Amino acid sequence: MTDEEPGKLEALRQEVRAWLKENLPEGWGSPGYVAPERGSKEAHDLGKAWQKKVYDAGYTGFGIPTEYGGIERSRAEVAVIRDEMQRTGTPPPAGSLGPMIVIPTLLRYGNEEQKKRFIPKILSAEESWCECFSEPDAGSDLANIQKTGVRDGDEWVVNGQSVWTSGSKFADWGVVPVKTDPNAPRHRNLSYFVFDCTSPGFEVRPLKQMTGDAEFSETFFDNVRIPHANMIGEEGQGWYVAMATLEAERGGGIQFVAPSRRIEPTTLGGVDIYVELAKNTKRRGKTVWDDPIFRQRIAQFAIENEAMRHSRERMRVKAIKRQLTGNEQSIGSIFSREKNQRQANMVAEIMGANIQFMRGDPRALDDGSWTYTFLRTRGNTIETGTTEVLRGIIAERMLGLPRSRQ
Amino acid sequence: MAIEYGLNEEQEMLKTMARDFLANECPMTHVRELMEDDTGFDPELWKKMAEVGWLGLVFPEEYGGSGMNFRDLTILLEEMGRAVLPGPFVSTSLLVGIPILAYGTEEQKNEILPKIASGEAVCTLAALEEDGDWWADSINIRADYRGGHYVINGTKLFVPDAKVADYMLIVARTKRTENPEEGITLFLLDTKEVYGTMSTLLKTMDETRKQYEVVFLNVPISAENILGELHQGWPIMKQIALNTTAALCAEMVGAGEKVLEMTVDYLKERIAFGVPIGSFQALQHRASDLVIGLEYSRSLMEWAAETIKEGDPDAATAVAMAKSFCGDTCKKVVAEGIQMHGGIGFTWDHDMHLYFKRVWTDDNAFGDSNYHRELIAKKLDEIHQLAGGGRWKITSGRMIPMG
C-alpha cells in the first residue's frame, strides 16, 4: 500500500514541491513564460540541464541498480515525486531515449563494463543518445537492414544509411544494428553496436517532417570505425538486441511506472484540459462542452486513460509474477498511440478554425502547441513499428495464428 | 485503496473449480435444454451450486454463507459468462441477496439469507416497468397504505426469473413528490404467501435468461416487509444497480474472452483458398483489436470490482467507466465473433448468437454504454465546478495550471 508512512511521504511531497519552486525555469507556468523553440539547441540544453538537476536531487533513476547510478526509492515515494512533477509540469528532458530504450537494452544484453560505462551518464544526462534503426528500405521490415559492418582488427568498419533517426541532432552516442554477416539468414545476420557520434564519417542531415520541425534526421555512415568492445550482445545476435530496444520503446518502460493511487479529484482521467478547452470554445452561441457529442467523446478519453492506468498496473503485477512474454506491450502501444491520435483529432474539432494557427501567430493558443500535437500524432502510429506490424505481433505471437506471409 | 490486480492463489482455485464445475454440470447441450424450458431453471443444478457454496458466496458464515468477497463473486460471474449459464443466479445473489445483507433487518436476514445459501429460496427484483427505462421517474406501480397494510397494484416488466422466485423485491411508489427519487419503497414479497400476482413469460431475445411480465392486483403486504426505510428505497436501488453492474461487466468480459477463444480456434481450423483463414491479415488485425479491447475491459472491470469490495468512494466512477467500456467492447467482440465465423456463426445451432444476445442484454441492464459515459461527463463537470472552474485556465492565449 502506498501510505505505509504517511508522515514521511508528506515530508517528501513538501520537499519536492519546494525543490520544484526553486529549480523550475524562471517564470515557468505563468502566461509570460516562453519556452525555447522546440527542437532547438536551447531546448536541448535546457532539457539536459533539467534532467541533470532532477537526477542530482534524487528524483529519477528508479528501478536501476545503484552500482550503475540508480537511485533506490519505495514505490510510494516514486508516486509522490511523479505526482508533484505532473502537477507543475516540467521542461521535457533532453534525450529521453537514453533512459527509455538504451538503459533497458544495456541491462539485458550489455556486459558489466558497458553497463558501468554508459548507464550513469545516461541517468545524469551528461550524454544523450540517438537511435539509428530505420533505413530507407527497412522500416516496418526492420530485419531488412542493409548497413554493413566489416571486421578490421579490433574495430568494425560500418557503411550505410539510416532514416528517421530520433534524437540525432545533438546526440553524443548512438545505437545501431548492422549487418555483420551477409551470408547468414535473416534475424541471424545483425550485430548491435553503440557508437560515438563524433566518429569521423558519421554525418547527420535534418529531416523535415509534416509539422515543419526536424525532430528526426537522416544519418550516414561512411567508413565509421566502431571498436569491437562496443558490440552489445554477441556477434549475430543484433536482431534480438534490437527487439529488446523496441520492446522498451513500445512499452514506454513498464518498470518506471508509478504505482496506482486514488483518482485525483481534480484530474479524473487526465482530461481536465479538454473540459476547459471545450468550456472556453463557443460554437453558434453555445459552448462545445454543451454539445452531447463532445461531452461523450471527452468522457470516453477519461475512461480510456483510466483503463490504460489500470492495464499498466495489471502488466506490472504480471511482470512480477513472470507472466509476461514481452508481446503484451504491443497492446498498450497500439491503444495509446491510436488514442493520442484520436484525442488530437477531437481537440482539432473542438478548436474549429483556430486549430489552423501555428507557432508564431499571436492568435495561436499555447503558441501553436495544440496544432503541433495534432500534426505530430500522425507519426505516432508509424514510429517504433506501425500499429499494423504490432497487430501482426499480437495475432501471431499471442494468438498463435498462422504467419500471414512467407 | 490497494487494488489487487490479477488473482491470488485462492482465487485461481475458485476460477479453475468454477470452470470445471460449469463444464461438467452445465455444458452447452444443457444450456440449450434450459432455453427450451419456460423457467430456464434446473433445481438439480441449483442444489449443486448451493453445495459448492456459490449461492451464499459473500454472506457471512452466520447466515450459512461462504464468507468470501465481492471480487471472488465476480470471478464466478466471469465463468458464468463464459458458460452462458441460465437460471436465477444474478437475480438471487445480486438483485436480492446482497441488498438484504446490506439493508435488511436482523429478522429479514435470518429468515432469507440461509435459505438463499442453501438453495431453498430463489429471489428476484421487480423494478422496470412498461418503458424499460432505468430511472426513478419510471417507477409508477403503486403501494397504497390501506387498513393497516400496503396494497400493491400495477404491472412490472422485464422481471427476471419471476416464475421460480420464492421472494420478490418490488420497487413501488409510496409517494409522489417533485423529486422522483423520493417516495419509492422496496417491498420484500414472499410469493408463496400471497395471491394476486400473475407472471407471464415474455418472448425475449436471450432465451437463456427468462423474463416475465408480472401483474399485481391488490397484493397486500405488511410494513414489516419493507427493505430499508419507507419512501427511501431509491438509494438502495442505486447500490443494487452499482453492484449488479459491476457483476455484469465481469459476465460480459467472461463471455467476450470465450468468444475470442472460439473465434481464434476457428480462424486456425477453417480452410479457405487453401489456407487457414487466420493467416489473412484482415482477420488477424480484427482479432488483435479484440485482444486490445478485452485487455482494457478487464482492467476496468477488475478495478470496479475491487472498489465495490472495498466500499471505496471511487466505486460509482469505476463502475460507470467499466460498464461503458466493457459494454462497447464486448458488443463489438460478439459481433466480430459472428462475422469472423462467417455463415456458420449466423446459424441457430452455433453458440455465437447465445453470447451475442447475453452481452447485449447485459449491456442494456442498468443503463447502457452511452448512459454510463454521460455519468462520467457529469462527473467531469462536477470536478470542474469543484476546482473553482477547473484546474487549468485559459488566460492570455495560454492554458496554464492553477495552484
Largest interface: A-B, 67 and 59 residues
Give a short account of the largest sheet of chain A: 4 strands, mixed
Task: Specify the CATH class of the largest domain in chain B.
Answer: Mainly Alpha
Instruction: Tell me the strand percentage band of chain A.
Output: 5-15%
Low-confidence stretches of chain A: 253-266
The class by helix and strand makeup of chain B works out as alpha+beta
What radius of gyration of chain B results from the CA coordinates?
Answer: 22 Å
- Summing up helix and strand content along with how strands pair, one would put the structural category of chain A as alpha+beta
What top-tier CATH class of the largest domain in chain A fits best?
Mainly Alpha
Can you walk through the features of this model?
The complex is a heterodimer of chains A (406) and B (403). Chain A has 406 residues and is α+β, with helices and mostly antiparallel strands. Chain A has 3 domains: 89 residues, Butyryl-Coa Dehydrogenase, subunit A, domain 1; 113 residues, Butyryl-CoA Dehydrogenase, subunit A, domain 2; 137 residues, Butyryl-CoA Dehydrogenase, subunit A, domain 3, CATH 1.20.140. In chain A, the strands form 3 sheets. In chain A, strands 1-4-5-8 form a 4-stranded mixed sheet. A 4-stranded antiparallel sheet of chain A has the order 2-3-7-6, with no helix packed on it. In chain A, helix 1 packs parallel to helix 3, helix 4 crosses helix 6 and helix 8 packs antiparallel against helix 9. Chain A starts with 5 loop residues before the first helix and ends in an 8-residue tail after the last helix. About 3% of the residues of chain A have low confidence. Chain B is globular. Chain B has a 4-stranded mixed sheet, with helices on one face. A 4-stranded antiparallel sheet of chain B has the order 2-3-7-6, with no helix packed on it. A two-stranded antiparallel ribbon of chain B has the order 9-10. By secondary structure, chain B is α+β, with helices and mostly antiparallel strands. Chain B folds into 3 domains: 113 residues, Butyryl-Coa Dehydrogenase, subunit A, domain 1 (Orthogonal Bundle); 107 residues, Butyryl-CoA Dehydrogenase, subunit A, domain 2; 152 residues, Butyryl-CoA Dehydrogenase, subunit A, domain 3 (Up-down Bundle), CATH 1.20.140.10. In chain B, helix 4 packs across helix 7, helix 5 runs antiparallel to helix 6 and helix 7 runs antiparallel to helix 8. The mean pLDDT of chain B is 95. At the A-B interface, helix 7, helix 8, helix 9 and helix 11 of A face helix 7, strand 10, helix 8, helix 9 and helix 11 of B.
